[in-house]
Amino acid sequence: MKPHPGQRQILASPARYSVVACGRRFGKTELGKLALVCRFLQGARCWWLAPTLQMADQVWRDLKQTLAPLPEARVSEAAQRIDLPGNALLAIRSTHHADHLRGAGLDFAVLDEAAFMDERVWPEVVRPMLLERRGGALFLSSPNGRNWFWQLYQLGREQAQAQWQSFRFTSSDNPLVDEAELAVIRRTTPERVFREEYLAEFLGDSGQVFDNLHRAARAATGAQPQAQGQYVAGVDWGRARDYTAIVILDGEQRAVVALDRFRQLGWARQRARLQALHARWNLTRIVAESNSMGEPNIEALQQAGLPVTGFQTTAPAKRALIEALALAIESGQLALLPHEDLLNELANYTLQRRPDGSYRYGAPPGLHDDLVMALALAWHAQQRSGTALTFA
Known about the structure:
Elements: H1 5-11, E1 17-22, H2 28-41, E2 45-50, H3 53-67, E3 74-76, E4 81-84, E5 88-94, E6 108-112, H4 121-131, E7 136-141, H5 148-157, E8 164-169, H6 179-187, H7 191-197, H8 213-216, E9 231-236, E10 244-250, E11 255-262, H9 267-281, E12 285-289, H10 294-303, E13 308-311, H11 315-330, H12 340-348, E14 350-353, E15 359-362, H13 370-383
Parallel strand pairs: 1-7, 1-8, 2-5, 2-6, 6-7, 9-12, 12-13
Antiparallel strand pairs: 3-4, 4-5, 9-10, 10-11, 14-15
Helix pairs in contact: 11-13
């Protein structure tokens, strides 16, 4: 591997502890592997730490392949470690169970996606292992709010902390990344996600998904069906204590015109509520969640002549659904009704980023997100109704 200028700057740092905040595809994992292998071949005892077993396993496979030409290397597949004569050690560890991480002294540790590790890993596990041998550490991560990784990043920015140095690089700092491709991603990605994942910005911990809600709440109340109107709907079915929610959009005006929210009704009565809305608004397309009891309800509605299609809510599909809605609200593409329940759900809806880069979207414990999901499904229906979309 030939490091690019940003990677070379980090590798050349004399600091004992280097903290690197970087955007996606900057090349941090390749940088970490190169730093680890160099130390290992110099006789150091090294650990690579990752937040999940899957991430640790991938690095283990890569390093085994890199070091395969060394005839003197002793490889332990079960322990995921490689030893060289003279006490050199390279081991891969997952921090998923931080309490299980213990070992002898280390010369060097790489903490990959450090911001997504248990905050105890550094002070209670890794730092004590570096004490006797005065070892160093390389912290690599994209930001995840202002947690313990952000605190270490601040240490490296202070001139008084001579042992620490911090670096921040965006995705654009990798010369292999196509700027035109990044521009496309920026136009089609919610601002918060782009700033954190690609610009490596440390944002506040609120995790709020939807911005500009008050500006977006500009749709007129009391709208009436128009003969030439094109109306679509999204349906999120309620289970047990959850609400069933229905949101109707004017596809041409890109505005919410009506919504309905109810619970503790049987499936037949829920379908009847939707049929009544269809009769009133002459809906051209309805997208309904098909998970669990959604499919039987969809089949019954289709048999009754309603233009219903199902949407299977998997984790990747939900992310795409929610991010499309967030982008529409941020960019002013969608006008919302100033409905208290709708705006409260949108304001409270949060995301938590996982170590693999995926997000968990949902309402905080004890709150609901049925109107959010119905609105997202309605916007999904609008996008596929033949009305062209443009982004500024």
